[in-house]
Amino acid sequence: MPPSFKYVILGGGVAAGYAAWEFVLSGLRPGELAIISKEQVAPYERPALSKGYLNPEGPARLPGFHTCVNMGGPAERHGPEWYAQHGITLMLQTEVIGGDLSKKELLTKSKDIIKFEKLIIATGSTAMKLTDFKVPNSDARGIYYLREEADAAILDKAVKKAKGKNAVVLGGGYIGLEIGAALVINGVQTTIVFPEPHCLRRVFTPEIAAVYQTHYDGKGVKFIQAAVVGFVVDNSLNVTGVKLKDGSSLPAAMVVVGVGARPCSYLFPKQLAIEQGGYKVNGRLETSLPDVYAVGDVATFPIKLYGNEMQLQGHVRHARMSGKYVVQSIRAQEECRVIDDYDYVPYFYSRMLDMRWQFFGKNVGDCVVWGLANVTPAGGKFGAYWVMDGKVVGAFLESGSTDEYEALSRLIREQPQVTDLKKLEEDGICFALTVASPQVVR
Question: Do 387 and 294 have their domain in common?
Answer without folding.
Answer: no
